[in-house]
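quick one, four chains, predict together pls
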Amino acid sequence: MFTKLLIANRGEIAVRIIRTCREMGIHTVAVYEASDRSSLHVRLADECVALPGPQSYMEPETILAIAQQYGVDAIHPGYGYLAEDAGFIRACDAAGIAFIGPPAEVVETLRDKIGALEKARAAGIPTVVHSPRSFAEDEFDALREAAAEIGYPVVLKSCRGGRGRGERVVADALHLAEAVRRAQVETQAVYGNKQLYVERAILPAHQVGVQIVADRQGNLIHLGEREGSVVQSNQKIIEEEPALCLTPQRREELLATAMRLAQLFKVENLATVEFLVDDAGRFYFSEIKSRIQIAHTLAEIVSRIDLVREQIRLEAGEPLAYRQEDVVRRGHAIMCRVQAEDPLNRYLPTPGRLRQVRLPGGAEVRVDTYVYSGADVPPHYDPLVAKVTVWAADRPAAVTRMRRALEDLGLTGTPTNLPLLVRVLRDPAFVAGRYSTDLLSRLSAEVTEPDYERVRRDLAAAVAVLYTRRRESFNPQSPDVWATGWHRSSRQLG
Amino acid sequence: MFTKLLIANRGEIAVRIIRTCREMGIHTVAVYEASDRSSLHVRLADECVALPGPQSYMEPETILAIAQQYGVDAIHPGYGYLAEDAGFIRACDAAGIAFIGPPAEVVETLRDKIGALEKARAAGIPTVVHSPRSFAEDEFDALREAAAEIGYPVVLKSCRGGRGRGERVVADALHLAEAVRRAQVETQAVYGNKQLYVERAILPAHQVGVQIVADRQGNLIHLGEREGSVVQSNQKIIEEEPALCLTPQRREELLATAMRLAQLFKVENLATVEFLVDDAGRFYFSEIKSRIQIAHTLAEIVSRIDLVREQIRLEAGEPLAYRQEDVVRRGHAIMCRVQAEDPLNRYLPTPGRLRQVRLPGGAEVRVDTYVYSGADVPPHYDPLVAKVTVWAADRPAAVTRMRRALEDLGLTGTPTNLPLLVRVLRDPAFVAGRYSTDLLSRLSAEVTEPDYERVRRDLAAAVAVLYTRRRESFNPQSPDVWATGWHRSSRQLG
Amino acid sequence: MTRLLVTLDGLAYEVELGAVGGDTCQVTVNGEALTVTVPHPEATVIDMEWLIVNGWPYEIGFDAGLQWLKAYDGLHTVEIQDLNQRVARPRSGDGRVKAPIPGLISRVLVAPGESVTAGQPLIILEAMKMENEIRAPFDGVVQAIGVTVGQTVLRNTVLAEVN
Amino acid sequence: MTRLLVTLDGLAYEVELGAVGGDTCQVTVNGEALTVTVPHPEATVIDMEWLIVNGWPYEIGFDAGLQWLKAYDGLHTVEIQDLNQRVARPRSGDGRVKAPIPGLISRVLVAPGESVTAGQPLIILEAMKMENEIRAPFDGVVQAIGVTVGQTVLRNTVLAEVN
C-alpha cells in the first residue's frame, strides 16, 4: 500500500481524499495557492506546499516536481485539473509515481469523444447523433454545415473534459455564431482548448450516469445509476439515486449497457458511463468519465462503500473486494451542490469570506466542504462550496430530509444558491419526481403555505428591526447611505 | 398522526427530535430557559417558548401548561427530565395529550429498580446481587449493614433514573459514609431524591444495553446491543455497537434474554435493557430504561432506522413497520460524547461561549449538537456538547474513522474533553478492543509516533510565535501579566 | 418612534417601532402589536441573523444593501421607505457602471464618445472562469472607461460611465 | 530578537525569533532554522489556531493562560520562560483561592482563623449539577472567606485566602 500521497486538487474533493487517506494511515501532501490558504484541505493534510499561482493546480510539471521533491508514491488527481490528462499520467508512470486512475491509453481513448461515440455505435449501442469530427476556431463554416445536417436544436460540446463547461444548446442557425464564440471563450478558460463538436439536442432530457468500479484483474461491478437532471449553467446542481426516469426494465437494460461499455473501453479504477434519456425512456450513450465525480457521494451513501478507498486499493493492485451480488442498494439518496452564486444577480459568482458556516447534522446527512466559519471562497475557482448528500428509506423521506438539511445549513458572509435549492426542494414537480433538464425554467410560482400571511407579517417586523438597528449602528459621517428614504434605489449602494 | 409536538427537553436531543419532526411535517414547539437561548433547538423549532428558570425543564406543571396553551397534541420528553415521570405521563393522559413513551404503569414498574430486579430473578434471569430495599437519608446504619452483607466492593445507586448520576463504587466500609453523602448530594441535585440502594460491584465489567422497539399491538423487535464500557464519572463517554465483550453464542443468549425481559415488563415504544457483563462473558440484568438514550444513534447508524420517527409512529398507534428479520445489521459503529469539561482540571465543567465550532464531515460521520460558532454552553446543565457517531464496515475502520472525525472537529472558546477522547482512540488496549470499565484508569502512557521529535520541535516553534504575538497584542498597561519570566506560575493568571 | 413602509415581495406593510437597542422591542405591523426578540443584541449588526417574533423564531440572511432577505422558505425581495424622512426618490439615471463581482477585465468593447443602447455589452469581466458581460444601463453616450484589459477589479469599482 | 525557553511535556526547547507581526516568521529551535506561517495574521490572537511550520500544518488549541496546548495527538503541557527578561520566579505561595469555574456556593466548610491542611476542602462550588470541592493550596490559616452560601460566582472570583 502507498505511504505518502499527494492530492493534486483543491476544495471539497481534496478534503474528501485526505479524510480517506487519514483513515487508511496514508500520509498526505496538500498543495494550495495563496488565495486558497484558508481551505480546510490545507489544514487537514499532513504536509502542505504552496503553489506559485492559481493556474498551478493544472500544471503537470509543477505538480510532478512537488511530488518528486516530497517523495510521494502516489498522486490522487480528484476531478478536473489533471484527472484526465494522459500526458500527466505518462509522466507519473515515468517517474515511478502511481497515478490513482486509469492508464493513459484508456484516458486518451475516452477523451476522443467522437471516436468513443463511434466505437460504441459500432458495438451496437445507441448514441446521440453527432458531427463526424470536431472543429477548430477557424472552421466555423464547417461547423455550421454539420449543425444544419444534424438538425436544430443542437448542442455544442467541448472535445475536452466534462463538467458541462462550454456546453450550449442552440435553438436555430441564427444564434449559432454567438453561441460558438462564447463556448470557445469558456472552453479556452477551463480546458485551454477551443475545439468543439455538435450533437443533436434531446429536449426535454434526463442525464443518467452509472458508477463503475473496475480492478486491474479485469473484474468490474456497477454501483447503480444516478440522475442529474436539475441543471443550471450546464452544471447538475441536484442529483439523485436511483434515477427516476427509468422503469425497472429500462434500468436493467441501461445498467447492462453501461457494463458492456465499461468492458469495451477497458475502464479501470473508477468511471461513470453517462447516458441521455428521453421522456419516453430511450437512452443514448453520451460519454465515459474516467475519474471520480462530484456526485460519487450518492453511490457511497447508498452502498456504504468508500469509493476513494477503493480507488487507492485498486491502484495499489488489489482486486475488487465485492462481487456484484455483495453490493446492497436500498433506499434513496439526493445530493445538492451549494455554490457561492448570487441568486438575485444571474447567479454570478460571489467569492468572499464566510462569516458563519453552520453545517447540518443528524441522521443520514453528509456534508463535504472545504469551508468553515471565517474561511474564504477564493475568486479564481469553481463556486462549489459544499455538497450535501442525504439518504432515506424512500424518496419522499429523502426529499423532506434534504429540505430540513438545507434549512439547517447556515452560510453568511457571501450569497449562495441555497434559496434556489430550497425552492427546488419545495417545487411540486420536483417533489412528485416528475421533471427533466428543463425543471429550473419551469419552477412553479412561489409555494403558498397556510402560514404565509403570518410569516410575511413577522418578516416585515424583523426587517424593520434589523434595518433600524443597522442604521443606528452605522457611522453617522455617511448619512447618505442609510438616511435616504428609498433605501433600495440609493446611489451609494450601487 | 400528530400535527403539533412539544419537545420537553433541551440541547442535542431537542435538536434531534425537531429534525425528525420537520422531516415528518409535524409542527414543533421548543421550550428554553434564558441561558439556553442561543441553543440550536430554539432556532430550528417552529415556535419557541421561554421558561421561567433552569429548573423548569423538569417541572411537569410548567411544561403541561405550555403544551395546553400552545395546543400541542403530543409531547416528546427526550431523555432525563420528565422522560420517566409517571405522574407527568398521567397528567398528559388526563389532558388528552400524547406522551411519546411507555404508559405510566410501565414506567412505575421499571423505576422501582429493586422490584424490577426481583421480578426478573423470579423469572429465572441472572441479576446482580443487591440490597433487598433502598434507604433514605436517615437510614445509614441499615445501608451499611446491607453493604456488609453483600460484600465489598459495592456500588451505590440511585432509586431514580439513570445516566449514572449518584452511582459510586465503594471499595470498603471505611469509605462508605463519605460516598453515601456525596451520592445523596448528587442524586438530590439531579433527581430531587436521595434514596439509595446497594449492589455488589462487578469489576472489571462491561456495560451492555439492548435496543428494544415495541408497538402497542404487542410486537417487539431488538435493534442489537451496544457496549458502553468507557466510563468517566459514571458517564459512558464512548460506546460501540456491536458489543466487543460477547462471543457470538453469548450475544444470542443476551439478545434473547433482553427480549424476554422486554416482554416480561410489557415495554412499549423504545426501551434499553441493560446488563453488566463480567470478564468471563457472564451477563447480569441490571435495569430497563424506558426512553430514548443518548447512544441511540449507534442503533440508527447501523440499522438505518430513525428511532424518533418510530417512537412517534408507535405512539400514534401505528404498528411496527419491521419484523426482526427485516432489520439489517452490518458493520461497526462508535459514538463519542464531546463534553465541555477541562481535561487539565479534573474534568470540571467549562460553560462558556464557543468561538469556533467546526463539525467533522465526510462519509458515515454523524454529528448531533446544539452548538455552532458563537453559541453558549450554559452553566446549569449537562456538559454534553456534541455526539459524534461513525460507521464503517469493520471495527478497525470505525476506529480510524472516529479518530479522524475527532481530529476534524474544531471547538474553541472553552475547553472540552476532546483530548481525552483522542487519547482513548489511540490507546492500544482500546484499538485492540480489549478493555473494560476500568480503561480510563489504565490508559497507556503517551503514544510515541515516528514523527514525535519533529512534532514537538514544531509545536515549540508554534507556541513561541503564538506567545510572542499574544504578548505584543496585549494591552501594555498590564505588563505584569505577560512580561514576567515564568509565565506559567505568574500570580496574575491564577 | 420610527415609521417604515416595508415592501416584501411586493406586499406593503406599515411598521412602527420604538427603541431597538436591547434584546426585545415592540413593533406594530399594520396596526398589529408584535414582540420581537433579538437573541444576540450584543452581536455586531452584520452578524445578526435570527430573531423571534411573537414566539416564532426566524433565521434570516440578507444582503449588504438590504435588497433581499432569505428566510427558511426561500428568498424575498425587500424595499424599505422611511415614512418620517419623506426624501424624494433619487433619480434612477445613475450612469456609473460598476463591477458586480471582483474579477479580471478581459475585454473592453466600447470607447469613450461611442453611442450605446440599453443592454449593450460594454466590458467583459472574467471571474471564476465565467465570462460576464457588463451592459449599458440605458441608451446614451459613453463618457469614460475606467479600466483597462488585464486589470483586476474589486466589487463596485466603477468600470464605465454612460449618460 | 526574542529568546524563549519553551518546555513542552517536560522537554525544553530554546527558541529564538524576530518580528512576528506578519504572516511568515523565521524561528530557530535548538539551533535549527524553521519557517512559521500564520495563515490568518489579521485574526485576533485569541482566534488564531493554526500555523504551518516548515510546510507541516498544525491546528492548535490552547488555554487562556498558555498552560497547555492541544494538537492533533492530544494535550501537551507548556511552560514558557523569557530568557531576555530574567525575572525571578514569583513566590509560589499565593494563597488566594479562586473559583476554577462559574457556579453556586453551596457550602462553606471553614471559617476565618481556622487552621487548614493542604488539600482540605474549604468550599463546595456547585456547577452543572456537580459538587466541586475547593481545597486549600497548602497548610496554613484561613485569612478570609470572600463568599456566602447561595452566592453565584464567576470564574476567578477569590473565594478564600489562606496563608
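Chain D is about 0% helix and 55% strand.
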